Amino acid sequence: MNLDDEYNPAHRHAVELQGKFHDFVRQAPTAYNPQDTVLQHEIHTLVGELESRKEPQAIENRIKIIQRGIRDAQIRGDSMLHYEHLNDLQRHSEILRQQMRRFRNY
Predict the structure, then answer these.
(1) Residue 1 pLDDT greater than 50, yes or no
(2) What is the 3 state secondary structure string of 36-92?
(3) Checking CA distances to 54, which of 9, 20, 47, 64 falls within 20 to 30 Å?
(4) Element spanning 23, H or E
């Protein structure tokens, strides 16, 4: 199994996370919150890190930043995203984080 065999599924998963975020944003009834913009940027950066094959620990750290942003949005309650959408993003990001921890070069 080469690294591409590990990175490609993780990259697809991150792109799916990014797509879910954009879908949820389109469904949102309220205006964009600055913290949502930060979360969008972090997810975009995550996809780029996977494309550039960064170290799994660095990618996992990015995922933790994303998860912290999602939790903060849930606690604050001021995100334009529904609580259920935030839960879905949190679940999806945790699956990706666990995937990174299984990389051979972790």
Answers:
(1) no
(2) HHHHHHHHHHHHHHHHCCCCHHHHHHHHHHHHHHHHHHHHHCCCCCCHHHHHHHHHH
(3) 20
(4) helix 3-27
